[in-house]
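Bumping with the actual sequence this time:
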Amino acid sequence: MTELSNPPRLDRFVPVDHAKVSFAGGFWQSWTETVRNITVPSQHRRLDEEGFLEVLNFKAPPAPLVRPIQPSGLSMQHFFDSDFGKWIEAASYTLKTHPNPELEEKIDAIVAQLAEGQMADGYLHSWFIRREPEKRWSNLRDLHEMYSMGHLLEGAVAYFEATGKRRFLDVMIRLVDHIDATFGREPGKLRGYDAHEEIEIALVKLYRVTGEVRFLKLADYFVTERGQQPSYYDEEARRRGDDPATYVFKTYAYSQAHMPVREQTEVVGHAVRAMYLFSAMSDLAVETGDLSLFDATKRLFANLTGRQLYVTGGLGPAHQNEGFTRAYDLPNLTAYAETCAAVGLAFWGHRMAQIALDSRYTDAVELVLFNGALSGIARDGEHYFYENVLESHGEHRRWKWHYCPCCPTNIARLLASLGSYFYTTRPGELAVHLYGENRAEISVGDVPVTLSQETRYPWDGDIALAVSPAAPASFKLHLRIPGWCNGAEVSVNGEVVTAQPVNGYLTIERLWQAGDVVRLHFAMPIERLHANPLVVEDAGRVALKRGPVVYCLEEVDNGLAPQRLALPADAELSARFAPDLLGGAVLIEGLGLASDAEGWGDTLYATQAPRQVPRKFTAIPYHLWANRDAGAMQVWLREVPRR
């Protein structure tokens, strides 16, 4: 464990405050406005309608469970507090850019109830206080205590930063003081850690907002203690009178607790937990200067993106553990690919790029933003997917709320804070990670700089980036060249930049003056992607991608299930902008081959192959599927050889 009396920080790139980045047009304007005006208010209504807010009525006897106890002994109500925390966090991000007294009142009402219910020693968890106070801290393996507390803490930090109100933050600091007094390696403390990572991220945020090193030390303890032997979960189970051998998931790899984190080389277990852990490890690497943590996260990132990531950025293929199975196991029809996991990958990649400018990290952020995370929320802003399959026969429809509604609030907090993912700075340097129309007010050192992007990205690859410092200033401008782009052109004030990217970032160092314009052109041909041969589910198939956007075929556009369509290897493909499609999007069109069912009748099998007939097809961005009529969908199409 790192000595943290005076932690040596890495010189990270610091994200620009999301409130300093405004989306006044372009792709992200309507999405961020939808989250602010529809998603956040509707989620509060759902929390009320579904009985979530009732659990905060600490004065009353507990009402009947709205989420019954499962055979495992767990109820979804064990972690209702996490949903309040994430909702408050998302709402707070919107408050910071668009003050809303009515929304503040709703948050303050929840905070007042939490403050009233907090126990004298600082403990705060609605389930255990109201239903099983004698069981608190008795089952960190299964019951999500600190996971829920962590999300409340993230919400408290975000609300304080948005409004300056300290009540929620002070409530949560009292809780953290209690946690710190309960857990650790000192005599008399429990050497435990929560099986669902989250508190670690929140503690680093609390450290950054308060400057108190004890919060960082607690986060470092939880990360470092994870996976140490003998297993705390075995000892804890025996104290409860349980046999550790009966653990339903059999191995603590489910919670990334099978070995110390610095020794892990393969991404395993529950996908969301893994992403939260690796995000916390990245944060701690920065704040403690512990490069062993960064080395571990680099290995794990390479393992994920090289062997276990869907083409959409989805991750975690299996339902039974909501996570990973084995390398190259990427089934399409049964893909789990939880929205929360894709959101978590955005968190992790964003943090990795703060340590090292490498486009591999921000490529992953962009991939999930335009595909595997964005697919988790409907275009109307109030219907969702928990699972993000890559193939459907029409059985998948978006829902208003879920039995376990972790994903709606997670995608909301990501999109509500989206501006912070675009730019980072450190002394004398400004990095541009993402592209899309926006205007940002940034300080590079002591110099205020206005940065604005004019672009239709991701629908085309032309970007005009105006760089306007308040006074002439010399600094490095790092521009991400996306990994998908094989042809990039960059100029400054009409003069071509001949420098070459390093790790996917092109650096321009000059004396910048108001009126300077950087122009970028990223070639955006339609690409046919093939999977590694070890991904047997996609053998003989091809996926379509244009720029950062992955495409799929839906039955509603094509008049038949896309599983009946094949794409000739030499088929011509074209792109067309459709302004009336769900707010406007680029379509891909072409001529495929359809298996002709005419004449088969009741014949199930025959010695003669079905006739293949030419048929026009339309593909839409994957993130827009299931927003219209029910029907089949497919990302990976059968490919037939050149004619």
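The tokens above came from a reply further down the thread. The chain is about 35% helix and 20% strand.
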